[in-house]
Design goal:
mainly alpha, 91% helix
Amino acid sequence: MFNSFFAACRRLHGDRRAVTAIEYVLIASLIAMVIIFGVTKIGRNLPATFNSVSSEL
């Protein structure tokens, strides 16, 4: 059992595709977090902005 596990680890050690996939996942998750933060921040301030514009009109 351990021999097959170590053999699989040796095969994956030289494979750089997994590292690239992990990097893309990390970048995509960072972008998603920035988008979620931005939408949340804008969404909370948007009603106040509309109210101030409507009161000025």
